[in-house]
Known about the structure:
The structure holds two protein chains of two kinds.
Chain A: E1 10-13, E2 18-22, H1 29-45, E3 50-55, E4 59-64, H2 75-88, E5 100-106, H3 115-122, H4 126-135, E6 138-143, E7 150-153, E8 175-179, E9 182-185, E10 195-199, E11 220-226, H5 228-235
Parallel strand pairs in A: 5-11
Antiparallel strand pairs in A: 1-2, 2-4, 3-4, 6-7, 6-11, 7-9, 8-9, 8-10
Helix pairs in contact in A: 3-4
Chain B: E1 2-7, E2 12-15, H1 35-44, E3 53-57, E4 62-65, E5 69-78, E6 88-90, E7 94-97, E8 101-111, E9 145-147, E10 183-189, H2 198-206, E11 209-211, E12 219-223, E13 238-239, E14 244-246, E15 254-256, E16 263-264, E17 268-272, H3 274-281, E18 288-293, H4 296-322
Parallel strand pairs in B: 10-18
Antiparallel strand pairs in B: 1-4, 1-9, 2-3, 3-8, 4-7, 5-6, 5-8, 10-17, 11-12, 11-18, 12-15, 13-16, 14-15, 14-17
Helix pairs in contact in B: 1-4
Amino acid sequence: MAKKAIEPKAVVPLGDCAAYIEFADKLDLEVNAFVQQLAATVQARAKPWMRDVVPALGGIALHYDPDHPDVHGDALEAAAILVQECMKDEAVAEVAPARTVEVPVCYEREFAPDIEEVARQMKLDPAEVARLHAAGEYRVLMIGFAPGHAYMSGLDAKLAVPRRATPRALVAPGAVAIANEQTVVYPYAISGGWSVIGRTPVAVFDAAREAPSLLAPGDRVRFRPISADEFMALKK
Amino acid sequence: MSVRVLRPGLLTTLQDHGRQGLQHVGLCPGGAMDPVALALANALVGNEAGEAALEITVIGPELSFEEEALVALCGAEFDGSFPHNRPVLAPAGSRFNVGHAARGARAYLAVAGGFAVAPVLGSRSTYLPGHFGGFQGRSLKHGDALELRDPGASGRFAKLKKTRNGTVKWSAPPFTLPDREPILVHVLEGQHFASFDSNAQRSFFDTVWKIAPASNRMGFRLSGPALVRSDQDEILSGPTARGSVQVPADGTPIALMADHQTTGGYPRIAEIVSADVARLAQLAPGGTVHFARCDLGMASELRHDSKERLSAALRGIAWNYGQ
């Protein structure tokens, strides 16, 4: 299943109703891809005591009912055993090939409050910031923090600004932001510490949609630059 | 036809037992901050334990019942005209002012048959950051009218009509309310406990923490000494759970509550055991808590004790109705 030996480094209780099985405490794209595949395998087992399987950057969280009879009073142990079994399970390891999702983004100033600052910091022209961001091919590493909020790798190193010293109190829903070689799309108007360089009119999370989250772990993502007019048209 | 909101109170939202199984798309389970009080309120009106009720926060609403309804208010004690912890048959045209919280922070007002709102992603809970669920995805406002799902449901409790004030002499126990403060909350050491210096480790358990004003359904900020880490390395964002206690760079711990973020990049110093989360939810800003270390075995004993207390209370309610 894995090219290099990937083993659990720690099994940590997240309270008494969840466990975190950690494989890496630093970002490692190979471990991340392994974790996504493993989470799909664990999910496919659909144990009655499992409430949720959450693939993170470097491990998997299993949320469970600690009093379910099938865990015999030790849910943490049951979770660790289940993950070990799934790691041996070659048959279930086949997952659907990665989808490519295209996300339209308007990089014009009114949608990109931080693009000039990023351009100044990285000694680029704002148009070049937009071009480099849209030229990238990204991969979803994790959905987390907020509904549909995807952490994506693949940002051009020329755009790798650190997080903002002071987070914005509110970013616009659909704000496309960058920091540290990653990019995200904010689902709602929330507080955010990343630099906003554009905005998508597409809802990354819509509770009324059949698949509420636009993106899933492992997805390939491309950003398509659009004009302000196109943004308004798509927003409707 | 409905329950009308004359004054909304500070933060009144519909909440049920929450949405499980969506943390992998970044959505927390949410639901009632104090699920024990929710279960009691529902039992008193003959509902399932996880039915949606009004979660009332610190300053209660004023409501009018346009038709007869069987209602119960459990959780925090409010100083208004509404009787607590017992079934109340509210006659058509009656008005109740819930008032201000005198002990505890959150109360649950359940109606027999439940409120008529459509479930979103399997739950009637209001998720405020996403503007969905509950009543139009928001907290109640003046003039809102909440329809009842089963207006005939109060008929099952017709004998309450023969009692004084439409209620009974017996009541359910308010066991998530603080008898005294600081309340004691049990925690497991968090994944990053060892990365804090020994002073921080000690003061986490020695300090009487105060709930800061900037606290909400997402998390409680705890004011006290800043907790310093001996190792300042950035943490790789990892999963969180209800009850995780994170410490951002400024050293102020945040206890994650019902509408918590599903992952976080701050070190987790502790994890609050599930049995104690409902009691913590009953602290208002200014309320105080101190933490005691425990292990998984004790967490499971505490959980079984609190489940047993709740089922005994539920049996008591059923027995009283049988009389």
